[in-house]
Design goal:
Layout: H1 6-91
Length: 98
């Protein structure tokens, strides 16, 4: 069998090159679109996570405030009880020394 003429070989190479270049352009475009979509997904996920952290922080701050208020109330009650206990102990007869 004879070798194909140079013109046929060049035309064949040009066709293959065109197909490879077209494929690369399509893959590049697809990749760019996927990266853009992935960035958008990451941005939305980051916003969602930030919102969750903000909500959790607000909840903790609220609960901490409630706990501090309750602790303050209990401290006042204990101070009152301690004062009353001191008054009771002062009124009790003292044991005889001896």
């Amino acid at each position: 069998m004879n070798q194909p003429r140079p013109e046929s070989r060049i035309q064949s190479l040009e066709n293959r090159t065109s197909i490879v270049e077209a494929t690369l352009i399509e893959l590049s475009s697809d990749t760019a679109e996927e990266l853009k979509a992935t960035r958008q997904d990451i941005k939305q996920l980051a916003e969602h996570v930030d919102k969750g952290f903000d909500q959790a922080h607000a909840f903790v701050q609220e609960r901490f405030g409630e706990i501090q208020t309750t602790l303050s109330e209990h401290t006042k009650r204990l101070d009152t009880m301690d004062s009353k206990l001191d008054q009771i102990l002062q009124r009790l007869p003292k044991p005889p020394e001896g």
